[in-house]
Write a structure and sequence with these properties.
Belongs to the methyltransferase superfamily. One of its GO terms (biological process) is methylation. Probable methyltransferase. Its EC number is 2.1.1.-. By secondary structure, the chain is an alpha/beta fold. It has a single domain, classed as Rossmann fold (3-Layer(aba) Sandwich). Helix content is 31%, strand content 25%. It has 5 helices and 6 strands, in the order αβαβαββαβαβ. A 6-stranded parallel sheet has the order 3-2-1-4-5-6, sandwiched between helices. α4 (92-102) crosses α5. The longest helix has 11 residues, at 41-51. The chain is globular and about 40 Å long.
């Protein structure tokens, strides 16, 4: 994971769209406090089953991505690997608005989504621009695409 090598991850991590939960479990094994969320009940059940025999610092929650403001406290790091471009376009703004509630001024949000470089393969490549603009409108200051 390059973010680790670059020292970009900080103590409290949210893994948005955590299936198949490898990142959440790996970061927890390194001592990070991790919350993995997914809208899929099946994905969360599988994640809980996988970690039930492990001693880890990860908590999995089924969660509507537009209701992250229900979390108490803030996250230092948010990792979104495939969540944003998997939700409906109409949910992009509520999702990014909810991120602003769980991020503090020094939080970092890392997004892996479709980009201009692969637009011939994917029709929704413009999503990264909407995400970036929505995050900025909602006062999330640090964004890496």
């Amino acid at each position: 994971m390059n973010l680790l090598q670059l020292g970009k991850l900080h103590e409290n991590v949210l893994d948005a769209g955590c299936e198949p939960n490898r990142n959440a479990r790996y970061l927890a094994s390194l001592g990070y406090k991790v919350v993995g969320i997914d809208i899929s009940e099946r994905a969360i059940s599988k994640a809980i089953d996988k970690t039930s025999s492990e001693k880890s610092n990860v908590n999995f929650n089924q969660r509507d991505f537009s209701r992250l403001n229900e979390f108490k406290g803030h996250f230092d790091t948010v990792i979104d690997i495939g969540c944003f471009h998997s939700i409906l376009n109409s949910d992009h703004e509520p999702y990014t608005a909810s991120l602003s509630h769980i991020c503090h001024s020094d939080s970092s949000v890392f997004l892996r989504a479709f980009s201009e470089t692969n637009k011939s393969r994917y029709r929704r490549w413009q999503g990264h621009k909407r995400y970036s603009l929505a995050l900025k409108r909602n006062n999330v200051k640090k964004l890496s695409l």
